[in-house]
Amino acid sequence: MTLPKTYKNYIDGEWVVSACGETFENLNPANRDELIGLFQRSGPQDVNAAVAAAQRAYKAWKNTPPPKRGEVFYRAAALLQERKEDLAEAMTREMGKVLEETRGDVQEAIDMTFYMAGEGRRLFGQTTTSELPNKFCMTVRGPLGVCGLITPWNFPMAIPSWKIMPALICGNTAVLKPATDTPLSAHNLVQALEEAGLPRGVVNLMTGTGSEVGSPLLQHSDVRAVSFTGSTEIGRAVSQACAPAFKHCCLEMGGKNVIMVLDDANLELAIEGALWGGFGTTGQRCTAASRVVVQKGVYKDFLERFVERARALKVGNGLDPAVQVGPLINEAQRRTVESYVEIGKNEGAQLLCGGQRLAGGEYDKGWFYAPTIFGDCDAAMRIAQEEIFGPVVSVIPCNDLDHAMEIGNGIAYGLSSSLYTRNVNNAFTAMREMETGIFYVNAPTIGAETHLPFGGTKQTGNGHREAATAALDFYSEWKSIYVDYSDKLQRAQIDT
Predict the structure, then answer these.
(1) How many independent structural domains does the chain possess?
(2) Domain check: are 210 and 264 in the same one?
(3) pLDDT the model gives residue 1
(4) 35 exposed, middle or buried (CB, 10 Å; 0-12, 13-18, 19+)?
(5) Quick check: is 226 in a domain?
(6) Is the alpha carbon torsion for 316, 317, 323, 327 positive or negative?
(7) Which of 129, 184, 202, 258 is least enclosed by beta carbons within 10 angstroms?
(8) How would DSSP label each residue in 371-405?
(9) Which residues pair with 128 in a beta bridge?
């Protein structure tokens, strides 16, 4: 009998066991008989060690020329490319989403690593004029210090890369706490950085729970910035924990995203988008299209075809190339989905397909749930207002574009929205009026690329953005520099 592999924390350039010596299991959500490995159950003592290592490494890394920092990233990205298939398979085993999607997750980490490597030769500031003679003015970016990074389970390599790479290229050091459901992918990412030659202590990895690792990391006095991706409820607690010490805090939280389909839309394209947006990653994306608002002229036709296609989706183990929808991440998430389905029924929404956990055969070993569609929903229903994070889509009829946008904007979140139309005037009107950080035309609400800012409005975030050069604004501070070579005292606003 082969013993399961035990994975260690990465602190100060060494793979080490937790202070308490205890571990927790990482199970395959498609087959809970399969143990992926044992991971360290870390605690405050491990947090202290990791932050101390990051603090020790900070000065040397800060003073490393940014292009040299970028060279490490180029090597790490190349390693990820070489291992892409193995990393994707490992991710499917620990997270559940289909292999095609986990390949995309790894590719996003590759893209982000290459992208931020290039920023090592940019990190641009500005030079500008002075209001006084013989005086030079410029701005430069400076790092913050130690950054605490807390990541979710649904994109277990992509999202850690969104945080680690911009933090490090700006000259910060980092302590990463990945989700307890998906620690292996974060381990594999950090391992690539180690093998690429990242100096010891620059990045540190600890596995464990939010209460035992996340909270002490937030509250540690040497942590200068915190980046968190997760629920709005937890994000609010993160914000409150950071506020007393005025720590920089980046929050990427919930979404209740909408696809709007007008009468003039390419209906087949819209249906494909709604299927991918609603049931890709089993609906476990912050950008998932859990609401579809359809103009009444095509509502019946859209709904019939959408339901027919959803019923035909193959659910199963994501390693099977024929499978289109994998399991939910764990039993607690499946119970959450079940509770919302009951809420939808009680609210009077019409259950058109799905609505039950899948059982029998391989389904009995995993957390599977049927793709579910509610029709004739009212925009005020809880299933159309609250984030479910599962394969449940609410379809809502509307009168026209204005009505669709009113429904689309009538929620607490503001992450992603989409419009299907052939009318360019409608497209540009919705671009302007939708209160979301991301907007698509004739595409679903998922599909963000690494060179554009990612984030949302309202209760989706607190104004910061991940990815692209926008991420650099969170992980750096501006310094304004004045060089006076007049050889005399000059007083701005007075001697002008």
Answers:
(1) 2
(2) no
(3) 59
(4) middle
(5) yes
(6) positive
(7) 129
(8) -EEEES--TTSGGGTS---SSEEEEEEESSHHHHH
(9) 137
Which pLDDT tens digit goes with each residue over 30-51?
999 999 999 999 999 999 999 9
Regarding whether 394 and 285 lie in a shared domain, the answer is yes
Instruction: Note down the domain range covering 366.
Output: 258-441
How far apart CA 199 and CA 210 sit, in angstroms, is 27
In the set 101, 119, 252, 387, the catalytic residue is: 252
250 is catalytic: no
pLDDT in tens, 410-447: 999 999 999 999 999 999 999 999 999 999 999 999 99
Which of these is catalytic: 286, 353, 377, 398? 286
Pair 306, 366 in one domain: yes
Q: What is the per-residue pLDDT across 364-418, written as a single tens digit (0 to 9) for each?
A: 999 999 999 999 999 999 999 999 999 999 999 999 999 999 999 999 999 999 9
**Residue 464: its H or E element:** none
Same domain, 301 and 227: no
| 82 in active site | no
Is residue 138 in some structural domain? yes
Say whether both 359 and 247 belong to one domain.
no
